[in-house]
Fold this protein.
Amino acid sequence: NAGVTQTPKFQVLKTGQSMTLQCAQDMNHEYMSWYRQDPGMGLRLIHYSVGAGITDQGEVPNGYNVSRSTTEDFPLRLLSAAPSQTSVYFCASGSRGYQETQYFGPGTRLLVL
Amino acid sequence: KNEVEQSPQNLTAQEGEFITINCSYSVGISALHWLQQHPGGGIVSLFMLSSGKKKHGRLIATINIQEKHSSLHITASHPRDSAVYICAVRPDYGGATNKLIFGTGTLLAVQP
């Protein structure tokens, strides 16, 4: 199994540009989520999904969109990039249930100029 | 005030030392996770626990639900243990989701 994969690893955007961060998992996990990690702060939940066709907002959803058309894929879209979205983004997946481990992707480092 | 607090924020140890990292939380939880993040690297789950104690190699994690406190211990520390250790809790108000609340992490440097 490849586990959780993310692309790209690194991206530079100009303010106002849009882009999609890709996340895929091959473990048939129902639960997938996107986090951002900023210096001095814990990871913060952006959006999550409990299954194909179902998404919901996390703690910091503004400026981001998600969709979950398949179990495997959970892309994160930046609609109009802002410097405040400069961060490291992690995708995670896991089986539903409070006793389940979450598996994290390698991260995408995004710089918005 | 953060719902999950870790201490210390930074820790430097000599190789071979016994290390303890603490995590306190203020919400009711159904599970607590300890995660490891190497510099520039991804995040790996070390433990998930809801009671008692778990051990994996030189790592031991304990939790006291009544006191809302967990500790991560590393015995016979080694430079390869140098990483950020992150505590995360699954609040029991999270419903059917696996939402986690994260601490800000403890940066551990083990010197040879």
